[in-house]
Amino acid sequence: MDLIKVANLTKNYVNDEVVTSVLGGLNFEIKQGEFVAIMGPSGSGKSTLMHILGFLDHLTEGSYLFKGQETKDFDDLKLALIRNNEVGFVFQSFFLLPKTTVLENVKLPLIYNNIPHKEKIAKEAIEAVGLTHRINHVPSQLSGGEKQRVAIARALVNNPSVIFADEPTGNLDSKSGNQIMEILEKLNSQGKTIILVTHEQDTANHAQRIIKLYDGAIVQDYQVEKRRSTKDGELVK
């Protein structure tokens, strides 16, 4: 089943009547349960594409179907509900509340959901990323890799259909980066759809499939023959 299907997806920015094309007529599908890396150099449009797929930005022309529904006609309320219930985000800069514990940071997306047992759900997400022993710490007491694990737990807490990870290892040393990729691999093996944005080929090779962008166009879309994998924070040879 296609989770995402885009046709002739185009994004332009207009500034003082000057039109700048960022994405030009993209066509692809992403199935439920896939692990896809979107690659490209700086300025290729990969983050813009992720923002559109994650409902943080709007396309200019074309079609974007999410679970079979055309999204460009959704109103702001519908988009907000999808962002909160269907997608999780992991960013390079973590975006944690600095004076708030790990538990409270992870519970944050649940504030807007009328569901019981919020604390239990948050604790389960924290356990899934191996941070139960840090549950009452604040971000300043955590390493970079631990902060990113908190961000992943926060992305997981609403049980989203897809997790978008934008350069999730960009601010981390290699060992911490490997640990983050191991968590994403594990989530994918459990059925989560992962869309990873990166400019690093080694990181992209953890995915099943790579879509390469250059100047706002898809120049390659292929399956990864020799995927990288990690175990206990170390690359598996």
Description:
By secondary structure, the protein is α/β, with parallel strands linked by helices. It is 29% helix and 31% strand. The strands form 3 sheets. The protein has a 6-stranded mixed β-sheet, sandwiched between helices. A hairpin with a 2-residue loop joins strand 4 (61-66) and strand 5. Helix 5 (144-156) packs parallel to helix 6 (174-189). It is globular and about 50 Å long. The model has no long low-confidence stretch (mean pLDDT 90).
CA-CA gap between termini:
33 Å
Number of strands: 12
Shape: globular
The chain-level mean pLDDT equals 90
Instruction: Enumerate how many helices there are, as a single number.
Output: 7
Range of strand content: 25-35%
Spatially, the strands of the biggest sheet line up as 6-7-8-3-9-10
Task: Outline the low-pLDDT stretches.
Answer: none
The helix content, as a percent range, equals: 25-40%
Secondary-structure element series: EEEHEEHEHHHEHEHEEEE
Structural class: alpha/beta
Computed Rg: 18 Å
Main sheet: strands, sense, barrel: 6 strands, mixed
